Give the backbone structure.
Amino acid sequence: MESNIKGLVAAGHEMASELKAECGAVDMRSVAKLISDLATQLEVQLVRANAMAAENELARKAVQAFCEVVGDNTEVIAEVVGRYGVLVILKAMKATVNMPATDAFLAEIRAEARNEGINYTASRLAAAFNHGFINKSLREVFDVTRMILSAKEELANEPHPIDGLSGEYAEKSLEEWAEQIRKGGCQ
């Protein structure tokens, strides 16, 4: 797979260079730039995938070492393994803790998922208003929708939900509102 991707990367860069040299049309230059950008991104993804694969291989070896040491000495692990065995286990397990490429990749996936959720929420609000399910002024709905969408920027560098954004507040509010509705208040 890697050699196929490397071939595509090289072909993309070469094709972009040829298009830039041979075509004077602005449109073709845009196409050439797009091809070059795509090839560059493909190359970046290959580097990222290789780094993650290397880290995951290290993690696999760490788990394997742990299993071998523990498996061979289950009955008398403390007596047989001793200080060196414990150090082997700790070293192998420590190797699985620091995986920056994997952490960065997962952070990007979380950010994408967060943005999709924010977009979905804002779209649901807009659709509900546009179809008459929200009896508020256009200005109020506009402000709330804009506020929801601005959360993407506010949360861009947040690894975990900041206070009040874990969903607990909204869920608690829903429970309270449901109770009020059951009691016949606030229709």
Summary: Residues 2-95 form one domain. The longest helix spans residues 26-72. The chain has three domains: 2-95, 108-156, 163-187. The mean pLDDT is 76.
